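Contributing new records

If you add data, match the layout below exactly. Sequence lines come first and carry their own label; structure lines follow with theirs. Keep one chain per record. Anything else will be rejected by the validation script.
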Amino acid sequence: MGQIQSHDSNSQNHRPHHPGIPARVDALGWEQITADLDAQGCAVLSGLLTPQECDAVAALYPDDSQFRSTVVMGRHGFGRGEYKYFSYPLPGLIAELRPVLYAHLIATANRWNQTMGIDISYPASHAAFLKRCHAAGQTRPTPLLLQYGEGDYNCLHQDLYGEHVFPIQVAILLSQPGRDFTGGEFVLTEQRPRMQSRPEVVPLTQGDAVAFAVHHRPVQGTRGPYRVNLRHGVSRIRSGHRHTVGVIFHDAK
């Protein structure tokens, strides 16, 4: 934990150690995050949550009153492990993160769609985007808490829940690699036209998040931009337990 606290303080020496979520998100290096999203389809948001916040969110898992449903991955061919979708109202930390992260990602989302020739633009506020989802029957909250044990894994997939999809989502690692678990790397694959798929393994520590493309993104080729398809998953947990929270910006049918 001491290492993570040092990382936080080094990234912004003059801000409080435990700033509010909006200030903390605003202080992230968004120019580099945007560049990484454009170049790789994913970007690390270092030190998004404190160790104490991570532990508090992970501790919600046994409390079924916080959730609308539980998914046991093995029953559906999704992998091994399980996850739970939060119910509304979302826990305060998740409810606060969702609109603030959306506000920083919206410019990239709109630019990607324009580059790919997709005639969809996203409103300035997350509340307005949720109204669009709800009007189309996508009313169920999608933020989720995932729990993995030894031997568990998450197959490559896309989190598409209806007609309206925000093209970037965020996953936050709540456990500490090497202390709480081993293995369990976040994996992203990119399927390129007439080419072999490209894998990307994203190293994270407790409190780090990864922002990544939900479905597809534009890539600049020699003849102009083209569209690539992405999927994400988690490699096998070799020991211990791993918790992650997923922040998805569109709601589900």
